[in-house]
């Protein structure tokens, strides 16, 4: 295993790459100089990594043959333009100048070129890319040559694109509607830019949920990896099996690689300064040697696992130039020591069977999201934007069905802005400074959500004006007011402009008198008053204008201190507010 570089104050010369990186990231260095320093660092690191690969290949060629019983490895890489391109460099550009320019290019070369074919050890170093669809769209516009190179690797099967979402959300922090939209827009964008349909769900920090098999099956996914590869914000259940069939509440099933019971999230290397639960077994793969591969294989055999799989998803970022984990510094050595690098599809193709059927509740997929960052202004703006977009979308559809124009293209652009605002790093890294925007990441996300809201309002205004122009309001004696219900169910709402409660049909409207106290044909001026009372046994009753209409109804429940409480246990503690 590689030794750590000398620390400051040890009396040794510091690593020039660390020095160049520190200078390049300084806010006191002009942007043009920072960029040139990054290019210099990339060139030096690239030379060092490729030289290291060749030395490892030569050494592997002289070593005995690797064990016949392989341990398989999914070597994944995570990142994208959002967040990563806005770091370090004034005005942005870090993703292109550093992350992709160094890590992405080397991974493509490793996976496809196999530059050591003349040597005994010429491993196939296949990888998976956990990158959001927005990044592929962005790269197709800015660096089409890079997308063309990636497309060839994907077609050859040496790189697999996984995940498929548009903006890499933490799934338990967004709505079900938003999750579906992430896959809808994300899969279409990836298919357009790379010519491939994503079929494998694997992510660095996804926040799983019980209905995921149903969602994945609906989008024609073929497989999933139920492992959280960066776990400060959530984790997952474990099963000792090569594969399982993960069943959702609706009965949908998805072939899935589980986390094994002996691979938890408690690893912590001596110099690890971050959060303790940062990954699972394999997250420290850069420190592994042959003895670690052997030990993992034996543990898997003891737990009845036929084809053991190590998986990791590292950032497209060289954390330690002396021993980089992206791209994996010791990949060539490990490939000669019994570790076989495969894509998710390749692993499932060789796995023994589908395994047992498993189901999970939400409590088995805990989330630990940091709340309160930037005053939760980003989350509030996201929620507001989604509601406005749904309303605008329905109004636009109704107007178009009745002969009006459609703003579908504007709505699509607005949805994509919202999905970017739901990017996990804009949430959990909200206080970090975006050097491109000169404000915190959370504020950048909030601006995206506000822009989506403004676009939605403009679409809704256009649709409403068109719909209003079609209506006959001559039956109203006073000021005609058209009230629309964009929901697919009837609603009884207090309408402030009318000053009263109005009953509305599903996906329909009412024309009412907007004057205070005014009514319209078919509308009564009196609405019943509903009230509820708590019975001595803790149940509820419902009254209409003081008359009992429902007795012995439901009861109040609340989850607190790790257990359920309800109003039947202590009715004296129930207070309606």
Textual characterization of the structure:
The protein is an alpha/beta fold. It is built from 15 helices and 21 strands. The chain has helices at 16-24, 31-62, 81-84, 94-112, 133-142, 144-156, 176-194, 212-218, 290-302, 331-335, 344-350, 377-401, 408-421, 424-428, 441-469; strands at 71-79, 127-131, 159-161, 200-201, 223-226, 244-247, 253-258, 309-315, 339-341, 357-358, 433-434, 439-440, 480-485, 491-495, 500-504, 508-513, 530-534, 540-544, 547-550, 557-560, 563-566. The strands form 7 sheets. Strands 1, 2, 3, 8 and 9 form a 5-stranded parallel β-sheet that branches. It has a 5-stranded mixed β-sheet with strand order 4-5-7-6-10. A 3-stranded antiparallel β-sheet has the order 17-18-19, with no helix packed on it. Strand 4 (200-201), helix 8 (212-218) and strand 5 form a beta-alpha-beta unit. Helix 4 runs parallel beside helix 6 (144-156), helix 12 runs parallel beside helix 15 (441-469) and helix 13 packs antiparallel against helix 15 (441-469). The radius of gyration is 29 Å and the shape is globular.
């Amino acid at each position: 295993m590689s030794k750590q570089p000398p620390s400051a104050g040890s009396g040794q010369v510091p690593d020039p790459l660390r020095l160049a990186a520190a200078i390049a990231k300084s806010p006191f260095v002009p942007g043009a100089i920072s960029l040139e320093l990054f290019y210099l660092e990339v060139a030096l690191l690239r030379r060092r990594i490729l030289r290291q690969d060749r030395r490892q290949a030569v050494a592997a060629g002289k070593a005995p043959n690797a064990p016949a019983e392989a341990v398989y490895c999914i070597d994944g890489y995570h990142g994208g333009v959002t967040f990563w391109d806005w770091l370090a460099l004034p005005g942005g550009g870090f993703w292109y100048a550093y992350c992709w320019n160094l890590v992405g290019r080397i991974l493509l070369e490793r996976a496809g070129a196999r530059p050591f074919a003349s040597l005994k050890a010429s491993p196939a170093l296949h990888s998976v890319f956990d990158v959001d669809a927005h990044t592929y769209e962005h790269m197709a516009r800015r660096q089409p040559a890079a997308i063309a190179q990636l497309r060839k690797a994907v077609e050859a099967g040496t790189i697999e694109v996984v995940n498929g979402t548009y903006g890499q959300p933490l799934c338990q922090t967004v709505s079900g509607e938003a999750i579906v939209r992430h896959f809808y827009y994300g899969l279409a964008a990836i298919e357009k830019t790379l010519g491939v349909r994503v079929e494998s769900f694997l992510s660095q920090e996804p926040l799983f949920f019980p209905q995921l098999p149903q969602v994945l099956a609906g989008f024609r996914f073929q497989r999933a990896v139920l492992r959280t590869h960066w776990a400060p914000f959530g984790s997952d259940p474990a099963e000792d099996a090569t594969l399982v069939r993960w069943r959702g509440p609706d009965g949908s099933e998805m072939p899935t690689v589980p986390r094994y019971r002996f691979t938890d999230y408690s690893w912590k290397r001596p110099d690890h300064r971050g959060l303790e639960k940062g990954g699972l077994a394999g997250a420290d793969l850069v420190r592994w040697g042959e003895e670690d591969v052997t030990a993992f294989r034996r543990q898997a055999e003891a737990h009845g696992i036929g084809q053991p799989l190590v998986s990791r998803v590292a950032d497209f970022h060289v954390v330690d130039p002396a021993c980089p984990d992206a791209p994996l510094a010791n990949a060539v050595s490990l490939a000669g020591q019994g570790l076989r690098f495969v894509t998710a599809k390749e692993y499932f193709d060789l796995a023994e069977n589908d395994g047992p059927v498993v189901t999970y509740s939400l409590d088995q997929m805990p989330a630990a999201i940091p709340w309160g960052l930037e005053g939760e202004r980003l989350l509030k703006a996201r929620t507001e934007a989604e509601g406005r977009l749904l309303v605008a979308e329905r109004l636009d559809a109704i107007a178009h069905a009745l002969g009006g124009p459609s703003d579908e293209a504007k709505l699509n652009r607005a949805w994509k802005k919202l999905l970017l605002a739901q990017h996990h790093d804009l949430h959990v890294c909200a206080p970090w400074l975006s050097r491109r925007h000169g404000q915190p990441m959370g504020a950048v996300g909030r601006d995206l959500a506000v822009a989506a809201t403004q676009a939605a309002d403009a679409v809704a205004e256009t649709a409403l004006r068109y719909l209003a122009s079609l209506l006959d309001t001559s039956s109203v004696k006073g000021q005609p007011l058209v009230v629309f219900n964009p929901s697919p169910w009837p609603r009884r709402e207090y309408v402030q402009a009318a000053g009263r409660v109005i009953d509305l049909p599903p996906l329909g409207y009412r024309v009412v008198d907007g004057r205070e106290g005014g009514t319209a044909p078919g509308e009564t001026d009196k609405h019943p008053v509903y009230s509820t009372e708590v019975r001595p046994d803790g149940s509820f009753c419902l009254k209409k204008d003081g008359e009992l209409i429902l007795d012995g109804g439901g009861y109040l429940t609340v989850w607190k201190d790790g257990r359920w409480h309800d109003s039947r246990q202590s009715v004296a503690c129930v207070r309606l507010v």
